[in-house]
Each structure stands twice: as structure tokens, then as C-alpha cells.
């Protein structure tokens, strides 16, 4: 088994190496440093723009999800009006009888 640890904190890396040595684990340090000048930004941009997924998302088809979310539904107008009536009465603006909301 191989374990790769990456950290900028030199002290924590030293503590991990000391613990690994106590546990008789082989520690190999690889210094791989990449500077900003080494990165070909145009090639990286093209790689990102040309990315194509190899399989369908685990969340399913986003277009179908949106279609289901936006489908027409029957609205219960009576409960909406009842809630509006309660809100207006709670705010103390108006006292309404039931006939006004039928």
C-alpha cells in the first residue's frame, strides 16, 4: 500500500515521519515542485474547454429534473387565500370576513 501526503507545513511533516519511523514504515520523500511558469495556461484552458464526461451524471438528467420541477400543478387557491387572510389579520391591517375571500 502506498500513502501520499502533501503539506506545506514542514513541522507536521516531520512529526508524521517520526511517527512512521516508530511504526517501522518506510518513508520516501519526493520533491515535485511546479512553478507557475511551467504550466502552459493555453493548453490547460483547452483541456478544460474540451472536457466531456464519459458517463451520465449520478444525479440524472438535469433537463428532465428541471422539466419535472417546473411542470404545471393544480394550485389550491382556497388555502392560499385563507393564508393571505390570516396574514392580513395578524398584521392588524384589515379584519375581513369569509365572504371577501370566496
Model regions low in confidence, pLDDT < 50 over at least 5 residues: none
Order of helices and strands: HHHH
- Distance, first to last CA: 73 Å
Give the rounded overall mean pLDDT: 77
Radius of gyration from CA coordinates:
31 Å
Question: Which structural class fits the helix and strand makeup?
Answer: mainly alpha
Number of domains: 1
Helical run tally:
4
Share of helix among residues? 40-55%
Number of strands: 0
Largest sheet data: none
**Overall form:** elongated
| Beta-strand content bin | under 5%
Explain how this protein is built.
The chain has 102 residues and is mainly alpha-helical. The protein has one domain. The protein is 43% helix and 0% strand. It contains four helices and no strands. It is elongated, with a radius of gyration of 31 Å. The model has no long low-confidence stretch (mean pLDDT 77).
SSE arrangement:
Layout lengths: L9 H13 L18 H9 L12 H8 L7 H14 L12
In short:
This protein has 102 residues and is an all-alpha fold.
Amino acid at each position: 500500500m502506498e500513502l501520499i501526503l502533501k503539506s506545506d507545513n514542514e513541522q507536521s511533516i516531520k512529526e508524521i515521519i517520526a511517527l512512521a519511523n516508530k511504526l517501522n514504515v518506510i518513508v520516501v520523500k519526493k520533491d515535485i515542485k511546479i512553478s507557475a511558469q511551467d504550466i502552459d495556461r493555453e493548453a490547460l484552458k483547452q483541456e478544460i474547454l474540451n472536457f466531456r464526461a464519459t458517463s451520465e451524471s449520478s444525479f440524472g438528467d438535469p433537463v428532465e429534473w428541471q422539466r419535472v420541477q417546473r411542470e404545471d400543478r393544480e394550485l389550491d387557491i382556497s388555502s392560499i387565500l385563507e393564508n393571505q387572510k390570516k396574514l392580513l389579520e395578524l398584521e392588524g391591517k384589515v379584519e375581513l370576513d369569509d365572504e371577501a375571500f370566496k
